[in-house]
Fold this sequence. Notes:
By secondary structure, chain A is α/β, with parallel strands linked by helices.
Amino acid sequence: xxxxxxxxxxxxxxxxxxxxxxxxxxxxxxxxxxxxxxxxxxxxxxxxxxxxxxxxxxxxxxxxxxxxxxxxxxxxxxxxxxxxxxxxxxxxxxxxxxxxxxxxxxxxxxxxxxxxxxxxxxxxxxxxxxxxxxxxxxxxxxxxxxxxxxxxxxxxxxxxxxxxxxxxxxxxxxxxxxxxxxxxxxxxxxxxxxxxxxxxxxxxxxxxxxxxxxxxxxxxxxxxxxxxxxxxxxxxxxxxxxxxxxxxxxxxxxxxxxxxxxxxxxxxxxxxxxxxxxxxxxxxxxxxxxxxxxxxxxxxxxxxxxxxxxxxxxxxxxxxxx
Amino acid sequence: xxxxxxxxxxxxxxxxxxxxxxxxxxxxxxxxxxxxxxxxxxxxxxxxxxxxxxxxxxxxxxxxxxxxxxxxxxxxxxxxxxxxxxxxxxxxxxxxxxxxxx
Lengths: 322, 102
């Protein structure tokens, strides 16, 4: 295990000076940074003032997709009194992309309290997106009396168990994992034996040269145990993925960008579209973080992922809602 | 007069303790107090003071609240002595313990 594997890389508080300089520039531009992956080694490219990537090589992709997360429709507290508006801004940003994404992933917490009206409002907004949206539930989508019944009725058709599934697009194998059911006292989130058995079976037909994208709500790796930011049996899923040449694990839940690389596996959590949360351990508890209203959109955002066929680099581009 | 006062005191002392009520605050992703000792018959009421929903779930599923939004509360009357562990089913790192004695 190298240093990067031990310590999550924060794209807003990087470890090496070159990247720090780079990110300072991109932060100044208010845009973000693109991560191009080659053989599991991430390479960062700065975005220019207009939010474009300065090195066109990073964008020489045959297809791309977008990740949206943590919409929390129904939340109405000080940290963001109007998450409908900020989700709309995120959707407008996707619509405005120069090239239509092949697909869109929503990594959970569509709603705040799983109320039917919240699901309805979210669906009304999200149907404006220009591509098919693939969902996984967040724990906030399982708060109805049926414990996730409303989510599964709406988004669970054709899925297994509590909503897990896989599909292929442009030669990439996408795996949707669910880790927001059956929480046990004092433990992190779990995938459970049934889902792990399904995953092992699903991967049987996937060749090791196929790029894999895993998406799930709570980080699959233990990002910060005291706040429950991790999946207890996630390492069993990760072990099954190690033999693959290019694996990208996308999560939500923590409402901020944190990334780490372990061998050929890149772990990346996205910003949400509703409200920011504190960096791990920087506050007594992980609740909504109130920032000045005119700063809020700097903390919210979407992730654009680009892939080049034939080779396997996936580039992750995080952009804020500014 | 003294006898009457004594009678009242006796009635008060002999009253079952089910009348007792205790409040547990849910704040900053913690149950406060986390550990509680109460007599049999106590009604415990949890109130969520966080901006994030929480639940109250007994480890062995004896009782389980729905999602408590900000300001929502949930109550359970402890009629049997014993030790009860509970947690938030959304944030399972949030733990609480109640010892109920005769």
